[in-house]
Amino acid sequence: MSHADWIMQFPGLSRLSTELRQYLTDNSRVIDIPVDTVIFGPGKPPEQLLLLLSGTVRVQKTSETGREIVLYRVHAGESCVLTTACLMAYEDYSAEGIAETGLQAVAIPRDVFDRMVADSPEFRQFVFMAYSRRMTDLFAVVEEIAFRRLDIRLAQKLIELSSEQHTIQTTHQKLAGELGTAREVISRQLAEFQRRGWIEQARGVIHILDRDQIKALAKQ
Amino acid sequence: MSHADWIMQFPGLSRLSTELRQYLTDNSRVIDIPVDTVIFGPGKPPEQLLLLLSGTVRVQKTSETGREIVLYRVHAGESCVLTTACLMAYEDYSAEGIAETGLQAVAIPRDVFDRMVADSPEFRQFVFMAYSRRMTDLFAVVEEIAFRRLDIRLAQKLIELSSEQHTIQTTHQKLAGELGTAREVISRQLAEFQRRGWIEQARGVIHILDRDQIKALAKQ
DNA sequence: TGTGTTTGGTGACTTGGTCACAGACGCGCT
DNA sequence: AGCGCGTCTGTGACCAAGTCACCAAACACA
């Protein structure tokens, strides 16, 4: 990735003026982060805003009992707003972000971020848009766990994970983490799906047999 | 409330320069909003940022089945960030904000807000701080509903609502809405608290008899 | 004093979460 | 091949929480 052209990967930033683009590329650096790195978490405040060039960051919460729930994911072309919040407000995180894959990212120091927000309406739009999207994601999570039945949520997740293919590589434990429930509950639910002939299972693999039925349940 | 001095009510804004203060007071107006007004909600995008001078706004989500859950409250001295998000990003709300009391608020038009963010580091700090706090609130809600037992959450809520006094004026239905559960569940849980001699109930009223026991449960 | 509305109580049942195990499978090692 | 070990999955018993269908008590007010 050349230092000069990463900006084009961010639709929201493509309309920046030439000077500001120059300023941004001059005062930031592209870094690589290995998979499974904890990017931020309780007690680990960062000193820079990250813009993801490639890879995904998983943001999750863990309970004292060890149960986990995925809050949202940051994909390539997006920014880590949580980092931003703390960048500006000096608050401590209450969730953690983990590199789900190897990452390539642009690191923007605090003062550069502040100047960009001040000088560019486009950059402001970009930042507030990112916030807005995370808020929306979180609202969706709350709605799901508070009101939606688990079999429906699991069906949705299976459809999401099996885009086009009919094989999913994952464990019951990971699915439980996605939905914020316990492994046993997933096991039972998948056993029921299997009994109905919707899926077939092997260790670490789920085969989709009847996508239509699963989809029908998912959109209830 | 005089037009000139409302700014002092916002700690985050008290350090604004004299010019910007003038600009802000000149280009905003103080409005009154009656209790139970729906300030924003799905399909009701606002054209201005609200800063609360007095009263509280309840932000909640409602399921198709009619169950509700309170996400957070905006108190006097705070701003409605959700409004801000949509102000800047033009996105549609997926939660609704309701005036829990009569409100007095400062309404700031979109373009004034944008200029303030551009021109004032203090205002930026104020806005990002507000976002940061809401994010934190939402994380807490997710954690609560996903991982915490209901009896503990109810005990916490009782302690919170009964600050100093030993009487709470509320209905089982409202408590259910606070915690995102069903009325019957609250009724049963309160019946159990009563059986233990921790509370006494009458229609629309709960008397705290043994605050220490409730507190002990709350902080598990 | 009656009548409608709001609030609370209850039983039966379903769904979801917890706990304590026991197998089953994959994989490296000798 | 056979062994050992860690990870993954299956299961039963039990508890907690949500749903459904009603009913009863308290209140509001004509």
UniProtKB/TrEMBL annotation, chains A, B:
CDD domains: CAP_ED. Keywords: DNA-binding, Transcription, Transcription regulation. Signal peptide: none annotated. InterPro entries: cNMP-bd_dom, cNMP-bd_dom_sf, Env_Response_Regulators, HTH_CRP, RmlC-like_jellyroll, WH-like_DNA-bd_sf, WH_DNA-bd_sf. The keyword Transcription applies. PROSITE patterns: CNMP_BINDING_3 (PS50042), HTH_CRP_2 (PS51063). Residues 12-134 form the Cyclic nucleotide-binding domain. It comes from the Bacteria. Residues 148-212 form the HTH crp-type domain. Pfam families: cNMP_binding (PF00027), HTH_Crp_2 (PF13545). The keyword Transcription applies. This is Crp/Fnr family transcriptional regulator. It comes from Thalassospira povalilytica.
